[in-house]
Amino acid sequence: MQQQTKQDRSLGELFGDLTRDTSTLVRQEVQLAKTELTQQVTRAGKDVGVIAAGGALAYAGLLALVAAVIAILVVIGLPVWLAALIVGVVLAVAGYFLVQSGLKALKTTNMAPKQTIETLKEDAEWAKQQTK
Fold it and tell me: Is 98 among the domain residues?
């Protein structure tokens, strides 16, 4: 049997082909969106890890340095309460900057599936051309 040309096919056949092609296209777009979002969530997870590391580092530093530096400050003549206050403020500020660094990196992560949006625009143009 001779293959029908596009001009010889019925309207029903053409719409059937368009429906199948559109269905395939939608499935591919969904898969692309899933892949793109997975990559972005992975990046965001790393940024959250930086925030957690900053918090843990600030806490560990607080524990270690409070004991050592307070002892040194007391030995040189400061009252215990003042030595503890000075060390606590310094470590809290350092921890704050680490957390802010992680939050800033997290905010710059764009979660929009850019590639999917672009291909959806292309797909819409393709579908428009198919119906002409």
Answer: yes
